[in-house]
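Figure S4 source data
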Amino acid sequence: MQVEVRIDDACSEPKVIILTAQMTEEINHLVQKLSENNPQIISGSKNGRIEILEQNDLFKIYAGNGKVFATTDNGEYLLRLRLYEIEERLNPSQFVRISNSEIINLKKVKNFDLSFTGTICVELMNGTTTYVSRRYVQKVKKILGM
């Protein structure tokens, strides 16, 4: 995707024009991101306190026992949003869904082990191991350029 910015003193309000041969999922996602005004803040509770969680500090976000949790260097936080709502707030170039119940931060991945048949083992920098479900293997391989 090419990005071009033009500075024009006569322009009173920023205007975005997208030139494309066809509508794609990427274009729809871009339009949605440009038009939304929702805050991209993620907060979590731990020990009775609510903290703002920085996206760069997140290792993974996962659902379990009907609740959603985020793992950071400071431990686990309980989140009040659903997994799909959090996914909408996360940077799509940094985070990827690896199963119906888990999203990982690609910048916190130590390595991917593709020796398992039909799935991918992911080791995070905090020592946690998780697995890409079969449904998401092709998506992850595409992101990895495979």
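Figure S5 source data
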Amino acid sequence: MENYVHKVQYYETDRMGITHHSNYIRWMEEARVEFLNKRDCGYSEVEKMGFVSPVLGIECNYKKTTTFEDEVEIEIKLAEYNSVKMVYEYTMKNKATGDLVFTGKSSHCFLNKEGRPVNLKKVVPEMDERLYKVIGE
């Protein structure tokens, strides 16, 4: 499990002064990129190997609003992984109040340059092993 903090920017708010719902998905990505980089499994490394890891699905549950300058603490964990597909879970809280503001999931896979699914265990076993170690941290 990993925590990442994002400070809400003015441009991320809407006319009502609250964070626009689309930004939470961006923050999921910010946290995921940081999470993977710290484990030597980052997108840059994956892309250098000739693979990509697209988003297959997103699940979002908005609990409370956030506003400009709120600090949002994002807890991320790799919940599922099977060498081809992975699912991350996210919990976001207002850092100052501890209020739960969002829960969500994102699912991803690995594809080669031709857009076909890749089994990391078969083509990059060392990265596959690193990801298996991360499950449920």
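The chain has a mean pLDDT of 94. The longest helix spans residues 22-37.
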